[in-house]
Amino acid sequence: MRRMVIMAALAIILGAGGAAVTRALDRPSSAPARSTAQKDGPADLSGSAGYLAEATRYAAFLQLTTSGTSVTGTWQSATLEGTTVRPASYTVAGSWDSAGHLTLTLGDAQTYSGTWQSDGLTVSIPQSDGSLASLHFAISDTTSYNAAVGALQSEAAHAAAVQQEQRQQAAASASAAASAAAAALEAARERSCVAINGHVDHTGGMLNGWCDSNVAGDPSGEAGSDCANAQLPFNDDGTIRRTFLETANAFYKGCWPDAGSVPSNVAR
User: Fold this and answer.
1) First to last CA, the chain
2) Would you state the pLDDT for residue 198?
3) Confidence (pTM)
4) Which of 40, 73, 129, 247 gives the lowest tally of CB atoms within 10 Å of its CB?
5) Do 35 and 139 belong to one domain?
């Protein structure tokens, strides 16, 4: 499992075509000096030095100490995943030879091969298709690594700000759409109600309101048939409920037009 985690973390360094996208740094004055007697590998690698690699959404820092042909140290990395920078740290153990070839094992997981050069070292990273990608570490120090991590954190903060703005815009769009839909529905209720000589009334506690008759008094002269009580409910599309209109015609005569004369775009 640990090997899979390390491999997944290192996969982020790859660019198009399987090549690592890295940026070599000039050696700072504070970095320990290395002999450059050989092009492919320094003649004297004793002591301790730091190495920095940077790639898209990734930074790693190797702090290595050599004693004889043995190599020990740490591999620290930071990976940008969306709006989060995820750190990782592994112990490193390995060996090197006089030609500058080295092997590095991270914790108890994957072993990598590499080569020391005059400007740092290059580590070969196995890929899922069997190929190797090169990750170059330039001679550097923790200050430069911290700066690289800071740059990733700035990217993460920017990504978070963009996501927040997108969420706010989506919420504003949804609110505007809801308001427009509510206004359109209210307009449909108004059209339906006016078409049968009524007006929309939202004071009765009905969610969609009522359509109240504009006819005053009791045209039928029958007790309990005053048009003030002739309220009709709306359908969800803003039309009048036809069954209620038919019932209202029987109980509140003269308050509403005959249901049979009302078109379907007004009452359903």
Assistant:
1) 64
2) 92
3) 0.64
4) 129
5) yes
